[in-house]
Amino acid sequence: MATRIRPSNKRCAVIGGSGFLGRHLVERLVDRGYAVAVFDIRQTYELPGVNFYQGDLCDKHALLTALKDVSIVFHCASPAPASDDRALFQRVNIDGTRTVIQACHEAGVQKLVLTSSASVVFEGSDIKNAKEDLPYAKRPIDYYTETKIQQEKLVLEACSKEMDFFTIAIRPHGIFGPRDPQLVPILVDAARRGKMKFIIGDGSNLVDFTYVENVVHGHILAAERLKADSPLCAQAYHITNDEPVRFWDFMSQILVGLGYSAPRYHLPYMLVYGIALLLWLIAFIMRPLVQIKPTFTPMRVALAGTHHYYSCARAKQDMGYQPVVPLKEAIARTVESYPHLRKGA
Ligand SMILES: NC(=O)c1ccc[n+]([C@@H]2O[C@H](COP(=O)([O-])OP(=O)(O)OC[C@H]3O[C@@H](n4cnc5c(N)ncnc54)[C@H](O)[C@@H]3O)[C@@H](O)[C@H]2O)c1
Ligand SMILES: CC(C)CCC[C@@H](C)[C@H]1CC[C@H]2C3=C(CC[C@]12C)[C@@]1(C)CC[C@H](O)[C@@H](C(=O)O)[C@@H]1CC3
Known about the structure:
Layout: E1 11-15, H1 20-31, E2 35-40, E3 50-54, H2 60-66, E4 72-75, H3 86-107, E5 111-115, E6 127-130, H4 143-157, E7 166-172, E8 175-176, H5 183-192, E9 198-200, E10 206-207, E11 210-211, H6 212-225, E12 236-239, E13 245-246, H7 247-257, E14 265-267, H8 269-286, H9 298-305, E15 308-310, H10 313-319, H11 327-336
Parallel strand pairs: 1-2, 1-4, 2-3, 4-5, 5-7, 6-15, 7-12, 8-11, 9-14
Antiparallel strand pairs: 10-13
């Protein structure tokens, strides 16, 4: 019988490696001596020790070229949540993830680490210190969440000792840090248009915001500890900063750090949520004629006005996870990294 030659366990691929999280992950993997293949629909940078493969993850043949001799695959590609495009989410997050799993089998990959999201259990109501055994959202709040649930199920179900193929899902929440294209830029854009004067609700809701380097640390620990008979197989893990913070205090610290005023006036949560739903409906109806992108989407309002923080005790116990950058330091580094978004810049 022919012996299957095992790829080096220092060879990995990052699908979505040109994105915010993906690039931070690639940089840290290179620091740790991994040879990295980046697979993405776009190339946004160059780095010694990294090979880029430009392609769509729904294209198995393109993927197979990038996965040659790779033992670990990190899958952190997804359409942006704000795109709100059902067909795109279905194609990339569900059909595409099936293709990724198939390509991993054909290429002899041993480990697949999926970047899922803590939002897979979020339905718009309070979540306080939830563990991973909370059921998936029955009524997901948007297409992004709906397809992240399906994607996570597909990856965890693919874990197979017989096939020598091990899978795990990392569920980060509210990732922020240098080069993030979402949180800080959207916040600053809203502030520049005078829309950040208001606090939605009473402002006491606690939330997890997780510094990108902590999320990267969780991914690498997961990949290195995942093996046959380890408790990590086919499991999902929350990775957070382990320092829940008031949503509006966090936003205020970023805004004030960049020279803008902190929100001050309170608006009732249900009123703002109702308006956001109405705007979403209008945008939906008008879509064939004109693209409207409301700042206050129902998802954003729900995230801004409810508690949503998660326990990372399981990651601490099973993989020895501890956040490496505390929240205060993380906010300072983030503010520092956006000189072009400072007031008056
Ligand atoms: N940003 C957050 O707060 C957050 C929180 C929890 C989970 N996540 C998850 O983390 C992952 C990374 O998110 P991010 O914030 O870095 O997003 P990002 O948009 O910066 O990166 C995603 C990358 O995926 C690539 N991509 C999209 N469709 C592709 C396709 N069909 N084929 C190949 N590449 C494709 C994009 O080009 C991009 O480079 C996503 O899976 C997201 O669901 C993000
Ligand atoms: C206009 C204001 C009310 C809010 C401005 C800031 C928001 C743009 C961010 C605050 C919380 C962020 C967040 C996400 C996107 C950007 C915010 C809404 C996610 C929905 C992105 C996708 C991730 O999977 C979610 C997760 O589970 O971590 C994020 C949750 C927080």
